Amino acid sequence: MAFDSRLLAGVSVLASVVESGSFTRAGAILGLTASGVSRSVSRLEERIGVRLLDRSTRSLRLTNEGARLYELAAPHLSGIEEAASLAAGAVGQAQGLLRASVNPIFARNVLAPRLPEFAARHPALRLILVQQPDAGDLVAEGVDVAIRFGPQPDSTLSSRLLLETRVLTVASPAYLAAMGRPETPMDLTGHECIQFMDPQRGRPFEWEFRRSHETVMVKAGGRFTFTDADMMVEACLAGLGIAQVLAFAVGGHLAAGALVELFPNWPDETFPLYAVRPSRRLSPAKVEAFLAFCEEIATPQTP
Q: Which family does it belong to (predicted)?
């Protein structure tokens, strides 16, 4: 049977719709209008004789047949992209403009001090760094890759674990002198526990403590909730209350005695940092260069 190039083109358009989430965004990636993308998917459906997408005014959803087709075809599309990159000699040549959304804690404490090294390695690469919450639509924001804390929801996004850093419970010496030091996590009841908002769920993080095979959940109450980690740390330093923070973000404060770790005998609560990009398919050389660098500099931060 002769190869049908129109079938390959239609499957490629379908994959772009799945990975971008809409006809409009897929069109922007492919250089087509939204109606052109829709017609291409419709022609593919006619050619193979099944409906691939359920369309409504508000959303697109793969049918079971569409999901199966995408699952089987995506690896082959990646292989074609990789073959084209190899033929063009593009592998290892990071160049052009990269737009990266980087969690501010990682950006400030780990990435920024090492950026001169990255610039020296990749002189043909231009980098735009933006700071956004650890949630949101990468395609809509025009982001090539994001560095985000927290478990990543299942989606067409591709995620790569960079590190897991310890979660520490800390307070300032001034707060402890005034309010007393809790000896166990359960003693937090009655203390001013500073809350931090989970951007993915829209509510404060739960306070969880782990050691070996033991896990304790504590209902830590407090009047103050933050969405900015640096502001929360500054408030904790000022004696506002007790906070849960990421270890590598407060190492200097702990070493200087400005903050005190309260429960070092509960050392196993960690929080993951992921690199996330919009597609599960082969990433461009510029994205791979940035991801490899982030993996390299994150490694020493792993507890």
A: Belongs to the LysR transcriptional regulatory family.
Handedness of CA 157, 133, 109, 216 (dihedral sign): negative
Tokens linked to 38: 């829709």
pLDDT of 203-258, one tens digit each? Answer: 999 999 999 989 999 999 899 999 999 999 999 999 999 999 999 889 999 999 99
Could you tell me if 242 and 236 are in contact, meaning their C-beta atoms sit under 8 angstroms apart?
yes
CA distances from 33 to 39, 265, 291 (A): 10, 59, 32
Question: Is 195 within 8 Å of 203 (Cβ atoms)?
Answer: no
Helix (H) or strand (E) run with residue 297 in it: helix 285-298
CA 154 – CA 206 distance, rounded (Å): 21
Pairing of strands 225-226, 195-198: parallel
pLDDT exceeds cutoff 50 at 1? no
Q: Which residue is it, tokens 């307070």?
A: 171
Tell me the C-alpha distance between 2 and 117, whole Å. 51
- Bridge-based pairing of strands 125-130 and 53-55 is unpaired
Torsion over CA: 116, 118, 121, 123 (sign): negative
| CA distance linking residue 139 with residue 130, whole number of Å | 14
